[in-house]
Amino acid sequence: MQTVEEFMQTYFSESIKMNRIQEDNSEAYREKFLSADYLSKSREEWYEDAAYKRANPALICSVENHGETADVIASVPVGLTQQHRIYHLLKTESGWKIERKGQKCILCNGSDRVEGEICSFCNGVGWSYYGVSKTK
Prior knowledge:
The protein has 136 residues and is an alpha+beta fold. It has helices at 4-25, 27-33, 36-55; strands at residues 59-65, 69-78, 81-92, 95-104, 113-114, 117-118, 127-131. It contains 3 helices and 7 strands. The radius of gyration is 18 Å and the shape is globular.
């Protein structure tokens, strides 16, 4: 079985490949629905975004392995910036699987507090989760 770190590196690598395939396969769709000017601009933005992601790949910042579960915080390229994301993993018979993902809370920015009070958006967790299970 892969380590948590190996699993996440594979996940990030496969995500890049999937995004390239998706972008390549959307060319006919974009040509059908976008004006020439808009298509040209979207290509420029895509190339800029792709170049940024190549130069700034996802990096694992921390791993907390709890045996049957793990939490990974990574710095990932989003647009032309790096943002912290959290991944909650479950150990299965076939290896690690992502149960949910999250990003820093948009209200408290990961601090867990707003004006001295526990953040009402993330309930003091500091992360906003999405996926099957949205709570920690």
